[in-house]
Amino acid sequence: MAGELLDNRGRGDVAWSFPSIHPEGRKFGLIAVGVSLLFLLVFGWEIIGWPLLMLSAGVFAFFRDPERVVPHSDLAVVAPADGLVSLIAQVEPPEELKIDDGSGIAGLPAGPVTRISIFMSVFDVHINRAPIGGVIRRLVYIPGKFLNADLDKASEENERQHILVERADGARIGFTQIAGLVARRIVPFVKEGDTVGSGQRVGLIRFGSRVDVYLPAGTGSNVLLGQRVIAGETVLAEMGVQKHIEGIAQ
């Protein structure tokens, strides 16, 4: 199915399959399996070995990397992460995405924009994807604290990595990977100057975290607070479209 063009009229061929495990996680899973077998087969400590073996399965599951069908639309801003929409607010973009960094490439303009925060629990897929296609103009890593990623202040105090993507038409979107209580490592798959497609894998955050998306001015959220979204598939917003949407939790 990878790379196959699918549409809403039934074109294409799909079948369910187990998601692959990202190479970044295979070593952790194999280490966990090795330790559990050591306790089971060498020491005979089943009370420790069996729980560790189940933990190994959990480690592999954490690093699962399922294929996603990315909508191709000039307006679509897709979710960069799986998880819960935990915050939607009007805020100023981070300074690191606004300031003149000396590269000659403009950052985001000043002024309030809509920020959508997506919280990833340890049960969510943790591969992050580009919300739009374009060129990676900025990749800024900032060390920080490891507060609960569900808190609003995590955007400014936690360890984080800002990414700025610019489309061919000059439209720009910034998003931020934020480490949390358990997450202790942000792993990028891209670098400044790389060209990415919408929904392309750009990195991951190990073991629970959050991603903030800063929509362009005049663009509003298409998702609701409390809604679950899927990276690369859920359309968070449509460029230049701002409308009021309500929903009921049930």
Give the gist of this structure.
This protein is an alpha+beta fold and 250 residues long. It has helices spanning 23-42, 46-62, 95-98, 154-157; strands spanning 20-21, 64-65, 76-78, 83-91, 113-120, 127-129, 134-142, 160-166, 172-179, 186-188, 195-196, 201-205, 209-214, 228-229, 235-238.
The average pLDDT score comes to 88
CATH architect. name of the largest domain: Distorted Sandwich
Total beta strand runs: 15
Poorly predicted ranges? none
Largest sheet, described in full?
8 strands, antiparallel
Helix content: 10-25%
What overall form do the CA principal axes indicate? globular
Indicate the structural class.
alpha+beta
Taken as a percent bin, the fraction of beta residues is 25-35%
Q: What is the distance, rounded to the nearest whole angstrom, between the alpha carbons of the first and last residues? A: 34 Å
Oligomer: single chain
Gyration radius (Cα, Å) is: 19 Å
How many structural domains are formed by the residues?
2
- CATH topology annotation of the largest domain: Glucose Permease (Domain IIA)
The secondary-structure element order is: EHHEEEHEEEHEEEEEEEE
Strand order of the largest sheet: 11-7-8-9-13-5-4-14
- What is the number of helices? 4
**CATH secondary-structure class of the largest domain:** Mainly Beta
Subunit structure: Heterodimer of a large membrane-associated beta subunit and a small pyruvoyl-containing alpha subunit.
Keywords: Cell membrane, Decarboxylase, Lipid biosynthesis, Lipid metabolism, Lyase, Membrane, Phospholipid biosynthesis, Phospholipid metabolism, Pyruvate, Transmembrane, Transmembrane helix, Zymogen
Enzyme class: lyase
Main location: membrane
